[in-house]
Amino acid sequence: MSKELDFVQTCLSIHPSQLVENIASDSHETRRIPDPYIFLVKDKKLVTPNGAVIEKSIRNDSNLDSMELKAFIKIQDWAESCDEGTSLWFSPPFPGKYDKGKVVASQILYGLDGKKILFNRNIVLDVNTKTILLVANNMSEKMGLDLITDPELLRQTPIFSEHNQLEILLDEISAYTDQNQMVEKGTDIDSKIETYSKLLIIEKMSGFVYSNTSDSQYLYAHQIAEEQGLIGKYIGSCGQSGKLSAFEAFSEGGRQEKWDYHSGVCRVCGNSTEVGPCSICR
C-alpha cells in the first residue's frame, strides 16, 4: 500500500493539470498499462485534484447513461459514507459504444493531511461480455455476494467490500492479461509518475494550456505525446464530444474536456475522414 500512498502524495504535490491527466490516461490505456489516478472526497462529492466536480461533467441522455449514472452515484455515496474498503465497477462491452471491457478498482485512502482520497485503477480487459460476467461473478462468489447474469445489471451494480479485494481481482484477470503483474510490482504507478514527468516537461516547453471550451489544445497535446512515443498501439477511448458518460468521466481520471471531430486519417479503417482525438472515425 505504500506505493499507492506515495502516488497520492505525488499527485497532490505536482498537481498535474487536467490536460496532463487526460493525456497520461490515454498513454496508459493505449499501452495497456493499468491507469492509477485519484479523486478527492469533498463535500459529499468526488472531485479531481484540480477541483472539478466529476458529477457536473456527466451527461444523462440515454438508458445507458442512466445506468452508469446510478452506478456512479452509488460509488460516490459509498466513498463519502465509508472509512475504508474497495469498490469494483465492471463495464462490459456495449455495441457502438464500448468495444472493450473495463474494470475500475477503487480504494479509500487518506493523505498525510488526513483528507479522504479515492485511489483508482482503470484496467482495460480485451475480453467479451461473457468473460467480464465470469470475472465479476467469480469475485462475487468468493465475497459471498449474489451472482449477476445480466451484463446491463452488472454495469449499474458496483461491487463493494470493507476489505481490500484487489488481490482477488488480480488473480481473476491473470488468465486474460498481464496487467495484474504490473499492479503487483507497482510498475503501473512508476509508469504513471514517469508519464506525468514527461508530459509536464512537454507542457512547459510547448506552452499548451488546457481549455474547457476548445479541443485544439487537447489535440495538439495528444499529437505531441504520440510523437514522443507516449501513445501506444492499442485503441483508446475518447468517448463522445460534449459531456461524458458517467463511466467515461469516472474511469478516465475525471476527464472534462469537450472536443469536436476534425479532418484526419482513421487509425482503424485507414480512410481520410472526420476523426476524434483518438484518431478513430465516427
Whole-number total of structural domains: 1
Can you list the strand order of the major beta sheet? 2-1-5-4-3-6
What proportion strand? 15-25%
Estimated helix fraction? 40-55%
Structural class: alpha+beta
What Rg do the Cα atoms give?
Answer: 18 Å
Dominant shape: globular
Assembly of the depicted chains: single chain
- H/E order of the elements? HHEEHEEEHHEHHHHHEE
Task: Compute the number of helices.
Answer: 10
- What is the residue-averaged pLDDT? 87
Low-confidence parts, pLDDT < 50 over ≥5 residues?
210-214
Largest sheet data: 6 strands, antiparallel
Summarize the structure.
With 282 residues, the chain is α+β, with helices and mostly antiparallel strands.
Can you describe what's shown?
- With 282 residues, the protein is of the alpha+beta class.
- The chain has one domain (2-275).
- 41% of the residues lie in helices and 17% in strands.
- The protein has helices at residues 2-14, 18-30, 63-81, 129-142, 151-155, 166-173, 179-185, 187-206, 216-227, 246-251, and strands at residues 35-42, 45-47, 86-91, 101-110, 116-125, 159-161, 262-265, 272-275.
- The strands form two sheets. A six-stranded antiparallel β-sheet has the order 2-1-5-4-3-6. A two-stranded antiparallel ribbon has the order 7-8.
- α2 packs across α8 (187-206), α4 packs antiparallel against α6 and α6 packs antiparallel against α7.
- The termini are far apart.
- 40% of the residues are buried.
